[in-house]
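Study the following:
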Amino acid sequence: MDIVKEVLDKQRKDLEKYKPITVEKHLEVATDLGHLMVTDPNYFDDEKFKADHEQYLLDLTRDNTQLLINSIWELPTDRQDEYIVAKLPVPRTVLPRARKLPVPKPLTKWEQIAKAKGIKKRTRDKKVYDEVLDKWVPTYGYQRYKAEKEKDWVLEVPQNADPNKDMFQEKRDLRIERIAKNEISRMKNIARTKKIQTLRTGFLGPESASAKELVTAANIAKASTASVGVFQEKLSNEKVARGIGVRELIPGSKRKRTPLTLPGEKKRNLDIVSKVLNKKPKIDVEKAISLQKAEARAEREAASAEGAPKKKQGKKGAKGSFGRKKPKGGQGKRNHSKRAVGRKRR
C-alpha cells in the first residue's frame, strides 16, 4: 500500500506542474485568428501586479495564449507533408501601418519613351557565341571586355588618320567617355526623380563653381602658358574676369604706380592739423583759485619770517665755551623712565 501511495503522490505532483487547458474568465476575450491576436477586456488587478508583477503578467499571458490555442484547434485543418495546418480566417481588426504606403518608383526618361512608343524590354542571354574567337563569351561584364581585347588584337588605321596615332588608346578613351556619359545620364535621372535642380554642364551642389569663378579660372588658365596667354586663341563669347587684368597675371610687367597718398587723405591730414592748432585749452577755475591762494599764503609766511626779531648769538668767550644757553636741569622733576643723556659723572 505504501508503494501505491508513493506512486500516486508522485503522479499528482507531476500533474500539478501542468495547468489545465480550460481557462475561466469573467468576460469573454475577443480573438482575431486572422492576426493571431487576443484582446482581454477583463479587470487588471493592480494589487497583484504590485505584489509580484512578473508572476502576475506571466499567468495572464499564459491564460490568454491558452485561449488562443484553443480557438486555433477549432478551425478546419489540412494535412500537408506530414504536418497539420490550420486555415486561418480573414483578419477582422484593422491595424495601423508602421510606415507610409510605398510610392511607385518613378520612370526614367528612357522608360517613359519606351512606354509611349510601346518598346518592350528584351531579355539578353548571359553568353553569346563569338565566331571570331570560336567560343562562348559573356554578353556583359569584365569578361566581355577581355574577350573584346582578345578579338581586337589588331586595329586598322584609317586612310586620313595620323599614322603615328595610337588607335588602341583612342578606342580606350572612347570607351571611358561612353561610360562617363552613361553615368551622367544615370545621375540626371536620379536628380529628375528627386526633383533636384540641375545645370546644363553638371549638377548643382556645394562643390559646383559659379559663373564668376569659372570665368576667373579660365582667365588664369589662359595666362598660365609659356607665352602668358599671348598666343592663345580666344573663345567664343569669352569674358574677362573683373579685378584680374593682364598686369596682375603677367609676372614682371610694368604696373601703374600707385599714388603715395590715397584720395582724400590730404584733406583728412589738414583737418587734423587745424583741429590741433585751433584747440582751446580747458581752464579749471577752481584749480587756478586754489593755486593762487597757496601762492599768497607762501608769500605771507615768508614776509612774517623776515620781520621777526633776530636771536642774539653769544660770542666766543671763555675757554671751551660758546655763546649758547646752558641747558636747564630737571628742577627736581626727574623722570626715572628716561635714560640719562650725556657722560656719566664720577
About this structure: The first strand starts at residue 30 and ends at 32. The first helix runs from residue 2 to 17. The mean pLDDT is 78. The two ends are 143 Å apart (CA to CA).
